[in-house]
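Protocol step 4 of 5: obtain the predicted structure for the target chain.
Materials: sequence only (see below). No template structures provided, no constraints applied. The aim of this step is simply to have a reference model before the mutagenesis design in step 5. Sequence pasted as it appears in the construct record:
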Amino acid sequence: MIQLHPIQPTPPVKRPRVVVAGANSPTGRLLLLLLRDSGAHATALVRQPAPLVADEVIENWTGNPRSADAIAGADAVVLLTGVSGADHWAAYEHGMVGTARRVAQAVGARGTRVVYFSSLMADAASDNWYLRAKGMVEQVLVPLSGSVIFRLGPVVRGSPRPLPFEQSLQQAAPDAPVVLYGERMAERTSRPIHLGDVATAAEAAALGMGKSGIYELAGPEEHSLAQLAQLANGCEVAVRTAPLQSLACPALLHSVRDQLARIAAPRDAGAPAATAAQFGLRLTPLSLAWPLDALEA
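Step 4 output (structure tokens):
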């Protein structure tokens, strides 16, 4: 007589719990889609209500005690909050450094993976408030045993919704020159990275790939800003430079100032490829995003 044994139920697979702070940013929205497809449980932390693809959305997160509980129970936290174009230091200190301190406090001594995107020029002693805040955030996060910090230059997305760096390279009209603000800006080089690669790096690090540490990450191609203007527009365009102080609108001046601070090439030319290999990335060439569609009149 054959004795039949009951089939034991398979225990449910534990879904990794990932918290995304600043989830309504372009990177955050794309990251949430990647996390959904990977089967992770995603909690979105936002300041203002927003329709997001997440298992849970916590609004007013910096003042909501639920956010600290979510971070404390997470396997990984991706910190995407930032400030740009502010006219006083307190905005950067509160919006960037303060939020990093909240995350660090909620994580405590746990080995939670904390992912942050810094700047290639981050420096806690910088005169530029944006770069100073980035450097100070690094100082807050580095002591956490699970922190992964990616230092980036400009980020691009392509049409139909180009990001601010890309917009600065577009012609305002078919015969108009591209104006680059700042001293010798046309000669400065950069390796713009695609938004999709940034989100993929965040997903890989949040799900445990790679080791803790600070990494330089950039796109596969390095060009001067003058060359990038040609590539973005898909044709030969005139390029001229102008002093930053020639921007009459204070808000625009502050925004462009912070944008210029991000324009740099990696100090180690081979670092981005090594970073990409460690986190399983295939860096996207600019030709897949550019040329951009012409601006509508």
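Step 4 remarks: The chain has a mean pLDDT of 94. The longest helix spans residues 89-107.
Proceed to step 5.
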